Each structure stands twice: as structure tokens, then as C-alpha cells.
Amino acid sequence: MICCYSRPCRHFTFINSSINKMAQISSVPQPHMQQIDLTSLNIQQLSTLKSQLDNELSLFQESLSSLKIAQTKYQNSGETLGQLTPEVEGKEILVPLTGSMYVPGKLYDTNNVLIDIGTRYYVEKDLESAKDYFKRKTQFLTEQMEKIQVLGFEKSKIRDAIVEIIELKLQQQKSS
């Protein structure tokens, strides 16, 4: 594991030799880590660390995008449930067979819905339980997104510190 944090004049990295291929970088020291002064690393090592952080930041961005899509689907589903009232029972609707194919249908039970809970499993719920389900799912995804954003911000700060050190080392090489 690798952990970076900045102090006024020195930048440190904590390294844990682990079997894991992907190192975890954090600004908080973790158990079983060895402290290394980032300024003691050469430009190649710093560039490698920066590249790893760039990859992790890209992965975080992709994860956030996927979570946002799922969050929007759950929010839309919850909002749609608000439109199911006894007044719409018996009305004609279009039932999706695929993403672009529909068949006509009629609403016959506006008190219960089938919810896709994943891997083609469906659960029948009453409207209030279904609304609660979508609310909880939306909240869970929001919390996960917030955690990823915090980690992304932390790793971005570490990346910026590494870039700063690389620039200082390049300036030192030019003036030598």
C-alpha cells in the first residue's frame, strides 16, 4: 500500500509491500506501511506514481458515471410511482418489450408493482414499499458517490503534490 500526504516542506509516501497488484494511495497513514520521502524518489519513479494516480482517478470518474446513471434510474422509478394513482387504473399504456419495442396494455392494479432487484429477479411490492425501496437505493448510491468523490479529491491532491515535486526536480536539473 502507498499513502501520501503533504507537510509544509516535505512530501511523504507510505509503502506496504503487498501481494496486491494495485496499490492503494491515501493521505492517511495506514498500519503496516513504511514511510518514504517523495523527494527522494527519482523522476521516473514519481512519473510512475503519477501515472498510477491518473489511472485511479480515471477509474473513479468511470465509477461515478456508472453510479450516476443507476441513481438517475432509481430516482426516475421512484418519481414514476408517484404517478400511479387509483384514477389511472384501467387506462391504456405502452408496455416496453425491448428498449425500442412496445405493446399496448392496460393498468389493472395500481396498488402493486413488480420491481427488478437484479439478475432478472423481480419482487412484488405495494406502492409505499416500492417508493421506500427506490428511496433507499438512491440514498445508498448517493453515499457511495460521495465516498468516491472524497477519495478522488484526496488522490487529486496527492497527484498535484507529485507533479509539483517533478517540476521542482526538473528545474533543479536545468539549473545544474
Automatic annotation (TrEMBL):
CDD domains for this protein: Prefoldin_5
Membrane-traversing stretches: none
Cited InterPro entries: PFD_alpha_archaea (IPR011599), Prefoldin (IPR009053), Prefoldin_subunit_alpha (IPR004127)
Coiled coil: none
Record NCBIfam families: prefoldin subunit alpha
Similarity remark: Belongs to the prefoldin subunit alpha family.
Official protein name in the record: Prefoldin subunit 5
Organism field: Cryptolaemus montrouzieri
